[in-house]
Amino acid sequence: MTDSTTINKTTQNYVKQTVMEMMMDRGYQRPYEKTITNFPTPILVACNDVEECYIFFGADSKLGVQEFRKFQTLLEQNDIRHCIIVSNLGATSFTSSILQKMDSAELEVELFPYRYLVRNPTRHSLYRHHRALSEEEKQQFLHKMHCSNSSQLKKIFRDDRICQYFNFPIGTIVETSRCYGSTGPYKSYRIVEKNKT
User: Fold this and answer.
1) C-alpha–C-alpha distance, residues 148 and 139, integer Å
2) How do residues 109-126 score in pLDDT, each as one tens digit?
3) N or C: which end of the chain has fewer CB within 10 A?
4) CA distance linking residue 19 with residue 165, whole number of Å
């Protein structure tokens, strides 16, 4: 695909297309490109009824603290509380530790390596449709299944690519459906848990 430090134009276009599809699958309007004065690269902006989300494409092979601080300053200046950063190889270990310590209520940062977004995982032939249950549906489901709590369900981890793609929060019950031959859809349910340690 690419070497470890550079991303070619074709790969960048595939990743950009997947990001646009991902945001629309999450319920945002189609992202648009925005050029900001004194900022090295254009960003994508996605909006829904609740918020605006900035999408940055990192210039370095790994997201470093200096580059992250530039993004953070821009977010604070524009009062943006949610961003997605796409970087070639993810983040440096120091930047990762900063991101883990951040309060998600203050700023929600999602980090994707390019390789996760070269192909849209929801367009794969083996993909099963995923849908997060609303709080009301969650309570009805637990009551119907005679579960005293959701920890009795099968698990899907937060670092699963589909969980990341849809940004399912921890504690969400996810319904997956798959059709077998001519029969109707078979549904299964999993709860989103913290990443394996």
Assistant:
1) 10
2) 999 988 899 999 988 877
3) C
4) 9
